[in-house]
Amino acid sequence: MAKAKIKGFNIISPDIKTVYLGSGSKQKARYIQLAKGFGEDQLDEDIKSGAVIYEPFRETLDLKQTRYNVITAPTEEDGLRAVAYLAGVYASRSGMEDANLDGSAFDEERFHEEISFDEEFIFEDEEDFFEDDSDYVESFDRIPVIDIEEVVAQENSNNPRFSNGFYHMEMQTNANRPRPWWMDCMDRSVCVIKNNVKYDTPFRAETISETEIACLARFSDNDFVYLVIIDPDAPPEDYSVTTAILEYTANHFKIDNDREKIKSYYKDLLVSVAKVRGLSFDKELDIPLLAEKLSRIDREYPCTRYAKIMDYLIHIGSGKCLKADDFKKLGLKKLIDRKSGNECSGTMESDLVGMEGVKTQVSNIMNMLRYVKMRTERDIRSDGYHNVHLFVGAPGTAKTTVAKMMAKAMQEEGLIKGNRFISVTGAQLKGEYVGQTAPKVHALFQQYDAIFIDEAYSLASSDSNGVDSYSQEALAQLAVELEDHALDKLVIFAGYGGGVTSKKNNLMKRFLQSNPGISSRINSTVFFDSYSPQDMVEIVHRLAHLSSLTLPAEQDPKIAEFFKTRQDAEDFGNGREARVFLEHCERSVAERVAGLDKDKVSDKDLNTVTETDITYAIEEMKNKHSNELGRDGRFGFS
Q: Would the pLDDT of 279 be above 90?
């Protein structure tokens, strides 16, 4: 990891060390190694040089110093870099101020009893310091990084009544765990990290739980406690974060999560990482776009990834001026070549069969969002565009796939803040008990940028008294969330409907008719028609290619004719049916190969689908659909 100082940034990336303690337990300790001679002037220099995401952070430093400090950050690297900044400032202040954290006289003897921050303190070999069976040794220039899950788990093993929920289920396992290394860190500063990206759950109700907040009390005698919360989707004013701040009278250091500022900062970081190594970039390279693309390889530690990429380019003999071809050597051709502007349509054109109407409708939605973004960037008044849509059509028509492509393209163009996508069914939104549904729906909108609600019509399910109470609660909360997040999220309701279904089975139409509060918030409807027989043939060939199978092209008319007979059936599965068709072909291939001498079986025998196999697949599927029971459980050959 880069440690050299260059003009521009005093801290490029946090210097994180990992060591193993003891030959018996082999516990892994992680800590931040602090830089020497760092203070407020250096932080100000970095902000002026481009570290703009730390501007709100700097403003909080003017408040009275506190023992507990809460840091909210979009990535773990940004959060730990903030700890390095803050610890450096606090260390520089310690030798100058006469007041301690609690207002008492500053204990200079205690501060210097091991080593001061500005003194020389270098170990030539980390293994010489952390010898076998040794404990972690605290120091002013090292801040241990502790996962909050480990702290809660330890509290569970000490006090079973302390636990609840997820942690309670872990209690028996944790009771026999070895004594954690960080329990020796009860004097100097510590960093406790809560990573909601790494430990994500679909319906997390709060950013930090009451249990996690309570366990931080064990560090009340430490010099400083840095609670780093990694959650790019946490709301600006989160009640659970506020609870932690009030509990410990903590200062709250916010790292700016504005996408454009992050892009600008990452561009400067990439240039800095290259300059440290004596590298530059060809003028033909779009450096901001390159930095953004490379950061996706490791979203939690983008700058660290930059450093590894630069080191490897040096290793393979790339020149001092880096060109696009240098990055393509690393297998990054797709990242370098891809353009942001119309990536959604480009991907759909190449990856989706047919669906011309869908592609046009999605392109219209993207163009509208681009238009609104341009007006906003030029400070032209705009009411925004409600990014809420309805996907209706038959099953197996790639509705989920299209939703993922839209979310990815919107995130890359800055039309939504992130690309955290989730697909849930309407039934999954309902809680187990009355009163649990609304928090689940709220959590969904707090944690994700793109929300795809499949089988949305299940929210209109009813009992003898009309729509059941769970559905009513879900619909009421959805109406609230759509009002609050229609402009900054992508929300899609999906299900069977449109002209491809009968009136009796037009479930999405019934869903909208029964929920005017939802239907009034939907901005556009995308219709997914069933695939044509020719489309089905192409899908079969694409699936075969993915499985390294070859189908005879002269059999295409026969396959198309079969799917023509299936096209108007109410149970036509579209893309799913193409997959089933190919599976039947493979069954026939497997049966044929089983009758050959194993030593004489060629790759061609294994990879070729013949006319006989296709005939078998058609007959099997005809029999299946003509049989009322479907014979789904049968695996055999007629």
A: yes
